[in-house]
Amino acid sequence: MGHHYQLFEDPFARSMSSLEPDIFSGTGVHHHLAPSTQWLGLGNHGIPKKLSIPITVSRVLKYIPEQQKQVEGLENKKEELTRASCKPGVLTMRENTAPTVSATCIDDRDIMVQVSLVSTMAGDLPMSKCINVLENEGLRLISSSTSAFQNRTFYSLHLQVHTCL
Fold it and tell me: Which GO molecular function annotation, any one, does this entry have (predicted)?
């Protein structure tokens, strides 16, 4: 009989004929217990405890709703993240009192930043402050404009990535 060498350990690599002695002797069968079997109290030692059918059923009936709650929580978290409205190239803040900022990459060097805020807040966030923050991040201002409509003030900034030679 030839030898078969493996580069990694594969728990399923043994043939059925090599498993038969383990199955009939009762050893080596429970090497890979699922987390649910451990939760059900079937032991961490690799050999499950004998549980009565009513106990097993009651534990499973308790386990399923807990898993459903966990799935619901994950679905809610997914929904919140989907609603966050964060897409590549655009950063948006949803609060009405907070400024809405969007940044669009025009090409590999040019960026267009647009800021919309309630006109009463324009004094708290002047365009010069926006420019200073962006310049501190390594961007260079090419052009800018400001406009007002109804109760909103709009800043448009054309920036380039500053490259040092």
Answer: DNA-binding transcription factor activity, RNA polymerase II-specific
